[in-house]
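Teaching assistant here, posting this on the class forum so everyone can see the example we discussed in section. The complex has two components, and the goal was to see what a joint structure prediction looks like when all of them are supplied at once.
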Amino acid sequence: MATISEIRRPVEAEWRQFERYQHDCLQSDNPLQQEVLNYIAQRSGKQLRPLLVLLAAKLCNPVTDKTFRTAVALEMLHNASLVHDDVVDSSDTRRGAPAVHIRWSNKVAVLAGDYMLAKVIGLVAEMRNIRILEIVSQLGRSLSSGELAQLHVGQSMWIDEEHYNRVIELKTARLFQACAEAGAESAGCTQRQRTALREYGRLLGLCFQIKDDIFDYSDLEEIGKPTMSDLRDGKVTLPLIIALQRAPESEAAAIRAMSEHLDEADPRTLQEIKSFVLRFHGDEYAVQRMLEYKKQATEALSVFRDSPIREALIQLLDYAINRVQ
Amino acid sequence: MATISEIRRPVEAEWRQFERYQHDCLQSDNPLQQEVLNYIAQRSGKQLRPLLVLLAAKLCNPVTDKTFRTAVALEMLHNASLVHDDVVDSSDTRRGAPAVHIRWSNKVAVLAGDYMLAKVIGLVAEMRNIRILEIVSQLGRSLSSGELAQLHVGQSMWIDEEHYNRVIELKTARLFQACAEAGAESAGCTQRQRTALREYGRLLGLCFQIKDDIFDYSDLEEIGKPTMSDLRDGKVTLPLIIALQRAPESEAAAIRAMSEHLDEADPRTLQEIKSFVLRFHGDEYAVQRMLEYKKQATEALSVFRDSPIREALIQLLDYAINRVQ
């Protein structure tokens, strides 16, 4: 599997320009806002979304100023939504450090997120490109709808695969889709290229989320994320949904009965649910889904001729599926 | 003083169109989101901001579809920011009913606010008017910065008039300013008209906020808002700032010493602070500020010839200053 640095190689010069531009955008007059922005910037993670913007743009044409702006805006939208999600989900840590609402307060987290969202609109507005603006505004609605859809059904052992798909479509796939689509648009792509990259981005996002959800049922040593953490938060994801569906009703009922107070569940209960998922191959089913999505995503890229950029996008799919954190 | 219905009269037909348009915009696929939108719509208050949009537009030219869209977008932005502010300030009621975060949860309030913000961008994006978009995006930054500036200094008896002015400028004046400016823009105004209405809106907003802050020091019987409620939340506003500045240092120090744990203060302490403000005429000073702003706002309107619409805008200033709730 290629590393992120290797995948980034064909857009290395552009990446440095993006980083400089991003740094300039993260300045604020408000000292508290500035502290929060710095805090987030110092824990910026792998920044896969701006990478996708740059790759999608350059696959079509040389990148433009609009490309950098789009990359910064979408990364900021992503971060704003994480800051709000951590308040909503009461998650204490993010990328190995205290979440913003823990480091400061819920108040600061809500307002800093709002400030970042407003900044995103400003960045996009200044581009004067209505199509990119529409992509971003549609994305904003999808992200909050996705979280709301998850809240609506709540932490229920009764959600089915269809509902799961709907949530991850809104919560994760749309963001990757927007990165690829707006990236392409920022470089002045054709309609055919735009449609292809949009679909690629969507499928990459689905793989990314499913992989994240499989981590709960992997072995502790391998991965960066604490195992069973989603389950402890009451999040029922694809591997468990499938196992519940495949198991005889009596067994499924016993597992469902454990689902109350999962946040206080002892390790034995969590381990029991994990064994249940593995016994009915819920994790394997999820892997199969990713592989199908990867195949479709690769096909979507077939409208482009072979190039190091196209290769990098295929490596990014592999990365999403095979990463260990 | 003219009532809101009277002020609305010269745009009565347009108001009905706005209400129909707003109703259509408040539809969502997500059942929970729909419930929240309905809940807010049923408690919509006086809707002064869309009224200002319509009046400002029609003062320049006949209103357009863009005017209705602007009115809906800015009212929704206002409501989204109230929903988030109530989470941030832990305010339990809004317009006499439980706040969204109390009726549902903080989670729902954060996400429903985000959804509404995204919807605002969508509404504005579809207008394809870059100037309105810039007004709205700048406004979004001002609103969150204003709340953050308030948080940053916090609940301090040491804030001065300058800081107070900066906060109300960002928190309230910019919204009224944006309504008047974007309203004018939506009807295709001249640059001169736009500048005049922008200034009028700003000053109207300042009057509106100062009046709100004076309520704390009025008599309970007269007004709709529970008296001393800001003070109990630790919010130090203009009347108290001025009294603290005018009083001999020993007296001011005694009042400042009471400022710890105001949320648990007994009625006698609150009453003492109120008497202090009245004794040093902090409330009268605030009234003087409003009257100066009203004068400036009326002057700003002098670029327009006399008309029922211009008259309504002047009545709106009187309403902001003299209302009892």
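For the discussion questions: Chain A is about 75% helix and 0% strand. Residues 56 and 277 of chain A are 37 Å apart (CA to CA). Think about how each of these relates to the inputs above.
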